[in-house]
Amino acid sequence: MSHTESCMVRQLQHYASFNEREIELLGTLERSPEEVQGGATIWQEGEQASEMAVISKGWACSYYTLEDGTRLILDILLPGDIAGLREFAQSAHQAGVRAVTDCTICRFPYRHLGEVFDQSGKLTRVIFAAAATQQSIMVERMINLGRRDAATRIAHLLCEMYTRLSRMNNHMKLQFRLPLSQEVMADVTGLSTVHVSRTFTHLNSEGLARRYRHQIDIPDLARLKQFAGFSEGYLGIPSIIDSHR
């Protein structure tokens, strides 16, 4: 893997290996970097959907605003993720996207993705796999909200974030940065901010996970996964495209 490869390439290499031409094609989606401050809206739900955006640096989230004005976070978008991928066939954005931290994003129109598809069947399959994984994450989020208690919701989210981050870092340790505020954690788990704080206190007392500001320490990953009922299969099968050639 070259040190010049983008976060998006490293993310998508979970599904397949790429040659130089394929890496160049993916690079055409990151030609217009734009700096976005943490907390800024990238686009709002209901706006015309004619573009996507690669989160080249930083963290963002996709969200839906409920009728009472509260917010439900559908997904946390990490460096390398493509925002708006699920809405490729939609005329309007079904979810808003907001920067969680300071971000660098690269917007691109739908037609650019179509051009990549025209030139590479392999990248078409890889992007489809990434979109399917995003959809699976949303399904798992629904299960989290409807069938898990507060402690297992938080534990499951920590396992998911660790697994997704470890794909970008071959030397991932069990202590990692999770730059999510109490409010964001509440909106992604369907809990109150007070409940989030109490739940972390409980996980800490049980020796499952510790949080220090934005640092997470997992003493025993296997035990945390067992407690959360976490299975990473919904996050996509490694090298799925290469194995089906």
Automatic annotation (TrEMBL):
Keywords: DNA-binding, Transcription, Transcription regulation. Residues 148-222 form the HTH crp-type domain. Signal peptide: none annotated. SMART domains: cNMP, HTH_CRP. GO terms for cellular component: cytosol. This is CRP-like cAMP-binding protein. InterPro entries: cNMP-bd_dom, cNMP-bd_dom_sf, Env_Response_Regulators, HTH_CRP, RmlC-like_jellyroll, WH-like_DNA-bd_sf, WH_DNA-bd_sf.
